[in-house]
Amino acid sequence: MGWITEDLIRRNAEHNDCVIFSLEELSLHQQEIERLEHIDKWCRDLKILYLQNNLIGKIENVSKLKKLEYLNLALNNIEKIENLEGCEELAKLDLTVNFIGELSSIKTLKHNIHLKELFLMGNPCASFDHYREFVVATLPQLKWLDGKEIEPSERIKALQEYSVIEPQIREQEKDHCLKRAKLKEEAQRKHQEEAKNEDKRSNAGFGGRWDTDINATLSSLESKDHLQAPDTEEHNTKKLDNSEDDLEFWNKPCLFTPESRLETLRHMENNGKSGKLRIDFSLKDSEKQIILDLAVYRYMDTSLINVDVQPTYVRVMIKGKPFQLVLPAEVKPDSSSAKRSQTTGHLVICMPKVGEVITGGQRAFTSVKTTSDRSSEYINTRSKHMEKLEVDPSKHSFPDVANIVQEKKHTPRRRPEPKIIPSEEDPTFEDNPEVPPLI
């Protein structure tokens, strides 16, 4: 059973720095909550509240949420609409797939004058004759019902037929209440019988199968090894019986009622008391990667699943319960991926293998090639390919691709030649006495 605690709210308030008194949006879906409490005291400024897919049986302790605009209570155990008058700003209410049979309880929503959208599909009352007409006529402020817009002509017609429709709705409510009373009695009787059977099993104990004599002889101690085999066999038989009981429980047909949902929760809690998770899985080991397929529940929210891939093992936390598996080879955690199947809901984890296996003892190293070795190897490979591609040049003429781009030859830089100074013997030389001689 899940409880609404301060720690739970703070863990879901990370977007608000874990401060709860100023929270405007809170999501507590799929937490197995059975009672709605404390939120109206700790989170007065809430505008959006998600509580879908829990086990809440009654709408309560939300009347002080004056700023609440959207309340989602889909997939719960609610049988009556009540205690929402104080939510003055409520504009959208989602009660999809609950157990509301008292359709007349929607009259309490007349005080929520800002209510524009209402969802009641999947409830027993949604199968009543003239269900939609009754709701449209009862709540004039509504604009949308079950995702369908309410037309003005539809509202006028519903108001005209309201006096005839209301008695019919009352009769259908009575029939539903009688059926629910019988189902509750049957569920209570079944629960009492199971409790008695459980008490009998616990009182029976081990049936005197264990020897408690302190003065055990030496021979009994020596025969300890011989006794281990029957104990192990007995343990395996007991484990097999538990698996068969579990399979029988899930294959047993039952009605969809609040009691059956609670019974399913109790069964899951009893199987999970050891802290271990029973879940089917398959492991596929190929040359390049390892694929783990976990058969998680199809409608489980992905936020409740946490995957941790390590080089030698993988750990999956499902609703706080661990599933851990040692891998047959070393994998790359950074390159791994986890996805949910859109058809089955299974969790598929793909983990690529590493090229080099690291063991606890000696370490296997691959030879490292230098750059020169790689270049020479590349040149040799290329020359081999070029030999295979050679053809007779007399039959085929093609340009020399290798010499299209001419490499520039490096020419050494020449020094400039010194100027020749004319000598006095030169016939064109004219000596000027005013010019000083060159040194």
User: What is the strand tally?
Assistant: 14
Q: Report the sheet-strand fraction.
A: 5-15%
Our count of helices gives 9
Strands of the biggest beta sheet: in what spatial order? Answer: 1-2-3-4-5-6-7
Q: Tell me the helix content.
A: 25-40%
Structural class: alpha/beta
How would you describe the overall organization of this protein?
The structure is a single chain. This protein has 439 residues and is an alpha/beta fold. 31% of the residues lie in helices and 13% in strands. It is built from 9 helices and 14 strands. Strands 1-2-3-4-5-6-7 form a 7-stranded mixed beta sheet, with helices on one face. Helix 3 (131-138) links the parallel strand 5 (117-119) and strand 6. Helix 3 (131-138) packs across helix 5. The longest helix is centred in the middle third of the chain and has 43 residues, at 162-204. The chain starts with 5 loop residues before the first helix and ends in a 50-residue tail after the last helix. 16% of the residues are buried. Residues 205-232 and 357-372 have low confidence and may be disordered.
Secondary structure topology:
Elements: H1 6-11, E1 25-27, H2 39-42, E2 48-50, E3 70-72, E4 92-94, E5 117-119, H3 131-138, E6 144-145, E7 148-149, H4 152-160, H5 162-204, H6 218-222, H7 224-251, H8 258-271, E8 281-285, E9 289-294, E10 305-309, E11 313-318, E12 321-326, E13 337-340, E14 347-352, H9 371-389
Parallel strand pairs: 1-2, 2-3, 3-4, 4-5, 5-6
Antiparallel strand pairs: 6-7, 8-9, 9-14, 10-11, 11-12, 13-14
Helix pairs in contact: 3-4, 3-5
